[in-house]
């Protein structure tokens, strides 16, 4: 037994019951508490945003509970197994994405779902985890920073699923998938010259995308973002109403269940993508800063766990998952406050809705499996 | 691989990662810090501005649903109206104990015990100040029961609303259609902005086809509301001038249906699976549109319970099935007048040329003969007599001589094989076969071939040929009008709710059915006249004593093939679902036709002229005679045996 192991076993004897349980379940205490706090905020505000619907409340609690269970179960999987399963999961996800393109159900004008008979499944959600894991898996055995050849392989591994998802069309998810892959590259020590080159290339790429790739509704979102008043009843309505909600909340807010924008249903999608505005209206600046600080704590803790992980795969995968979570938070809050154009990205663990919640929880489960075992298992 | 030349340096990599992680953390703080700065801008600096904007959002718009347009028969008698009904509504925040309240209501029989769990879920999913319906359409009795105990149920109230009401219940239900709760499918079809506050929409028949006429325009009123969404008089010192836009009722529809005729036909068909369509040959007006059994459309407006719905959809007699529009049947001998016209047109046979009928028809090279319905045969028959006696052999012969494609081309002029285009949806095409059709309809090469024997059966309206009752009535009307055709229609006028003006819809002519010799019509019509009037006419019993000149043609559609050596005669000896369908087409008066009728009775207890002809007669009587004449005739015919003459079931 190594010194480290001895140290851990001695520490264990002095621990309280709860902490010991967390350790036995391979869960990280601070991260676990942080996630539960965010989930609690979400559940409370969903009740208000839904017009005091107990149905919404129950469903949200149920999903959060299911997500927690998924997280705890995944945390029990040995890291080696996760790494071994990664390439297969990635391939399966790719195949399913192609299948969706060919046969998928068309819901709300977009083709995202695969009907498996008993359940409808969204392969793009799976790719949010599979892409960063696959990139980390590829770099695990290879020296870092990555060689040009490795970069080319990774570029394809990120680019192909991103394009497939963007074509569904689901711009929000494709951006998240692309950024989760990009995070791996950045954390792997991608050389400065590449970063500069990519940023330099982004401008012409954006122009090409605007011309050929983006759907009309996506262009409209960007145009409306630049000038919401140009379409006050159409897509600009979201942006205007959400800023009214936040702005009129002031420093202290109008009080729980008292936000007129939310309760009078002026604010669209108030229990899903725009729930951040409901928090702003009812709990004011203080509430919003509290929520943001909570998120920062969760992200910071996850990043710390990644940095102290044992191997390259764990570090890169965990680091990418925590930074992607940060992208979620930033894109959603940025869009609700009018800093960014409207893309369909939910506020993690707070927005009403199932799929993203489960994916995110699964991500944290994997993160805990990869990083939280250190204290119990010696090398 | 180039990377294999380099060695993995775990320590450096870890340091690299940590550096990058720190950069990422800083970036996160910067990004989320930007959001916080933005929030300060919105919530502190711009606070007053946004508060003012949100104050403007204190007026809520509440929709006021319009009254649905009425549906009237051709003489203005109401077929679908709006009647007040009462529903029981519960408001969560005013009820102290929801469980006790629901239990109390279920004790009174106002709420089904089985529904309580669902109801509770529904109530809890709504906002606390929303009134949630717990029981739709209270009966007088239920109303009284609740009214007496109202004080025991604070927060539960009776609310009146308008719902669709069909005063004649199942009369004309397949023409009028019905309304039901807006479904997910309907939501894709309807402009939902126009349906705010509306719960019912047309599901079939005229109710569906004329939905945009009947619906009307939704009105709205502005309400001053507080943060909970409750309507209030004032908020603080703030009052507002509130606008109200009255809804505009839907337009009223005048149908072409004459409810007297409709009811007479339904009466005559009671207990049968059957259909009657009656059309005015002069304009295509559908005077009667019957498919029995029917159902009570009021059930759908009220909201069906699941057992009620299952009882309707799983009834083997299929009451929801519109036989007039969607039932396809072999037309049987009713097609013979058209066949005769076609033969004249192609010069196959002269009108006075005779054929000798020995009771069977043989084709060279075919062992099996085609049998006439009359075993001994009809002897020498010309065209009129062949029609009057419904001689099969005559028509086997002319059909064979014409060939299927010529038959197809001529009969297509009468609207067979193609939907007539009536103004409600769901109509079937029927089938007017041709060599081209058989080539494309079958997969196996040997089945694609059209045989002359196939044509022979089509000569008497059997084989591949099928038509809907609507198509038969349309073809009969075309014959009655000597080739003039109109698209059948159920709506003849629309009364505009806004102006009060009634706009007649002009009849829609279709391309005429043509004959080279204008006199040819009279041979076909003459044969049909003889059917009803000659001493050897197959329907003389049913047509006896008419006060107008009637023409008709009976038909029998075989449901299964009887062994070739013995044609079953006694329908009563067969299991019901194996019995033949009885058909009859008729029009009157012969020289200036006012009504054409087609009757089909599925698996009838007797044949076309025995069972279907009296029904057609009844429809013609009710439409053409004055009420006095009708009463007088009914009195005379009271002890009517009206049995089919033996030996003539055709």
Biggest sheet of chain A, strands in spatial order?
1-2-3
| Portion in helices of chain B | 25-40%
Mean pLDDT of chain A: 83
> Which runs of chain A of at least 5 residues are low in confidence (pLDDT < 50)?
none
Structural class of chain B: alpha+beta
Q: Name the CATH superfamily classification of one domain in chain B.
A: Penicillin-binding protein 2a (Domain 2)
Q: How many β strands of chain B by DSSP?
A: 23
Structural class of chain A: mainly alpha
CATH domain class name of one domain in chain B:
Alpha Beta
Structural write-up:
- The complex is a heterodimer of chains A (379) and B (650).
- Chain A has a 3-stranded antiparallel beta sheet with strand order 1-2-3, covered by helices on one side.
- The mean pLDDT of chain A is 83.
- Chain A has a domain of 130 residues.
- With 379 residues, chain A is mainly alpha-helical.
- The relative contact order of chain A is 0.15.
- In chain A, 71% of the residues lie in helices and 3% in strands.
- In chain A, a hairpin with a 2-residue loop joins strand 1 and strand 2.
- Chain B is built from 24 helices and 23 strands.
- Chain B has a domain of 194 residues: Alpha-Beta Complex (Penicillin-binding protein 2a (Domain 2)), CATH 3.90.1310.10.
- In chain B, helix 16 packs across helix 19.
- In chain B, strands 2, 3, 4, 5, 10, 18 and 19 form a 7-stranded mixed beta sheet that branches. Chain B has a 5-stranded antiparallel beta sheet with strand order 12-11-23-22-21. Chain B has a 3-stranded antiparallel beta sheet with strand order 1-8-9, with no helix packed on it.
- Helix content of chain B is 36%, strand content 17%.
- The N terminus and C terminus of chain B are likely disordered.
- With 650 residues, chain B is α+β, with helices and mostly antiparallel strands.
- The chains are: A mainly alpha (379), B alpha+beta (650).
- At the A-B interface, helix 4, helix 8, helix 11, helix 12 and helix 13 of A face helix 1, helix 2 and helix 4 of B.
């Amino acid at each position: 037994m190594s010194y480290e192991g001895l140290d851990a076993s001695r520490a264990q004897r002095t621990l309280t019951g709860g902490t010991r349980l967390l350790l036995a379940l391979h869960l990280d205490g601070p991260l676990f508490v942080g996630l539960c706090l965010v989930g609690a905020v979400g559940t409370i505000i969903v009740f208000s945003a839904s017009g005091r619907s107990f149905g919404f409340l129950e469903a949200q609690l149920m999903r959060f509970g299911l997500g927690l269970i998924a997280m705890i179960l995944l945390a029990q999987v040995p890291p080696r197994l996760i790494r071994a399963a990664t390439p297969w999961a990635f391939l399966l996800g790719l195949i399913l994405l192609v299948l969706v393109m060919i046969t998928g159900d068309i819901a709300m004008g977009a083709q995202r779902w695969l009907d498996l008979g008993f359940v409808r499944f969204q392969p793009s959600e799976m790719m949010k985890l599979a892409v960063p894991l696959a990139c980390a898996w590829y770099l695990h055995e290879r020296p870092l920073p990555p060689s040009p050849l490795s970069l080319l392989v990774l570029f394809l591994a990120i680019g192909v699923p991103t394009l497939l998802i963007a074509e569904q069309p689901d711009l929000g998810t494709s951006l998240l998938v692309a950024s989760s892959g990009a995070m791996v590259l950045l954390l792997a020590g991608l050389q400065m010259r590449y970063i500069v080159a990519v940023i330099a290339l982004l401008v012409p790429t954006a122009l090409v995308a605007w011309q050929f790739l983006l759907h009309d509704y996506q262009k409209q979102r960007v145009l409306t973002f630049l000038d919401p008043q140009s379409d006050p009843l159409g897509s600009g309505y979201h942006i205007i109403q959400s800023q009214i909600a936040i702005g009129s909340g002031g420093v202290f807010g109008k009080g729980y269940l008292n936000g007129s924008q939310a309760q009078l249903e002026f604010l669209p999608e108030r229990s899903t993508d725009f729930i951040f505005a409901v928090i702003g209206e009812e709990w004011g600046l203080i509430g919003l800063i509290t929520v943001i600080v909570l998120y920062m704590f969760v992200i910071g803790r996850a990043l710390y766990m990644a940095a102290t992980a044992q191997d390259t795969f764990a570090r890169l995968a965990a680091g990418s998952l925590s930074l992607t979570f940060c992208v979620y938070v930033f894109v959603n809050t940025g869009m609700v406050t009018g800093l960014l154009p409207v893309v369909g990205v939910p506020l993690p663990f707070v927005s009403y809705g199932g799929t993203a919640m489960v994916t995110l929880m699964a991500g944290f489960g994997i993160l805990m499996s990869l990083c939280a075992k250190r204290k119990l298992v010696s090398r | 691989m180039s990377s294999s030349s380099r060695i993995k340096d775990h320590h450096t990599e870890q340091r690299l990662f940590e550096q990058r992680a720190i950069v990422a953390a800083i970036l996160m703080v910067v990004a989320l810090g930007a959001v916080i700065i933005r929030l300060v801008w919105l919530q502190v600096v711009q606070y007053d501005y946004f508060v003012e904007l949100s104050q403007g959002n204190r007026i809520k718009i509440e929709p006021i649903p319009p009254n649905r347009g009425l549906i009237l028969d051709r003489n203005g008698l109401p077929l679908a109206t709006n009647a007040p009904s009462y529903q029981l509504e519960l408001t969560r925040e005013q009820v102290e104990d929801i469980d006790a309240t629901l239990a109390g209501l279920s004790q009174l029989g106002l709420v089904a015990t089985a529904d309580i769990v669902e109801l509770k879920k529904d109530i809890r999913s709504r906002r606390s100040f929303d009134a949630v319906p717990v029981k739709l359409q209270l009966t007088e009795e239920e109303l009284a029961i609740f009214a007496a105990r109202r004080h025991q149920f604070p927060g539960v109230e009776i609310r009146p609303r308008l719902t669709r009401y069909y005063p004649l219940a199942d009369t004309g239900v397949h023409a009028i259609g019905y309304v039901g709760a807006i479904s997910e499918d309907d939501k894709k079809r309807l402009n939902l902005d126009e349906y705010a506050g509306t719960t019912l929409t047309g599901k079939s028949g005229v109710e569906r086809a004329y939905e945009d006429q009947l619906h009307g325009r939704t009105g709205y009123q502005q309400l001053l509301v507080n943060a909970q969404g409750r309507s209030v008089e004032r908020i603080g010192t703030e009052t507002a001038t509130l606008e109200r836009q009255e809804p505009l009722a839907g337009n009223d529809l005048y149908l072409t249906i004459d409810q007297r005729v409709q009811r007479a036909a339904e009466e005559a068909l009671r207990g049968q699976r059957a259909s009657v369509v009656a059309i005015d040959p002069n304009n295509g007006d559908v005077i009667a549109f019957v498919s029995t059994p029917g159902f009570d459309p009021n059930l759908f407006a009220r909201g069906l319970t699941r057992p009620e719905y299952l009882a309707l959809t799983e009834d083997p007699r299929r009451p929801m099935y519109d036989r007039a529009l969607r039932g396809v049947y072999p037309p049987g001998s009713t097609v013979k007048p058209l066949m005769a016209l076609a033969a004249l047109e192609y010069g196959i046979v002269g009108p006075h040329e005779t054929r000798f009928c020995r009771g069977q028809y043989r084709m060279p090279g075919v062992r099996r003969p085609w049998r006439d319905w009359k075993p001994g045969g009809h002897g020498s028959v010309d065209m009129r007599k062949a029609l009057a006696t419904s001689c099969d052999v005559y028509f086997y012969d002319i059909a064979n001589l014409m060939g299927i494609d010529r038959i197809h081309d001529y009969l297509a002029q009468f609207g067979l094989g193609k939907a007539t285009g009536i103004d409600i949806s769901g109509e079937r095409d029927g089938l007017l076969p041709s060599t081209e059709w058989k080539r494309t309809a079958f997969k196996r090469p040997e089945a694609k071939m059209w045989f002359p024997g196939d044509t022979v059966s089509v000569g008497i309206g059997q084989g591949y040929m099928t038509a809907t009752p609507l198509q038969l009535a349309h073809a009969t009307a075309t014959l009655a009008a000597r080739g003039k055709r109109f698209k059948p229609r159920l709506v003849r006028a629309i009364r505009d709710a806004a102006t009060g003006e009634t706009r007649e819809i002009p009849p829609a002519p279709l391309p005429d059915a043509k004959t080279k010799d204008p006199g040819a019509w009279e041979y076909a019509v003459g044969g049909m006249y003889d059917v009803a009037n000659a001493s050897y006419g197959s329907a003389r019993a049913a047509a006896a004593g008419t006060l107008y000149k009637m023409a008709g043609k009976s038909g029998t559609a075989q449901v299964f093939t009887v062994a070739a050596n013995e044609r079953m005669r006694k329908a009563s000896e067969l299991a019901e679902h194996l019995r033949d369908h009885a058909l009859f087409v008729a029009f009157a008066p012969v020289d200036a036709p006012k009504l054409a009728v087609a009757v089909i009775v599925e698996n009838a207890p007797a044949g076309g002229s025995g069972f279907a002809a009296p029904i057609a007669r009844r429809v013609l009587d009710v439409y053409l005679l004055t009420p006095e004449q009708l009463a007088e005739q009914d009195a005379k015919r009271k002890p009517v045996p009206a049995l089919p003459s033996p030996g003539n079931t055709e």
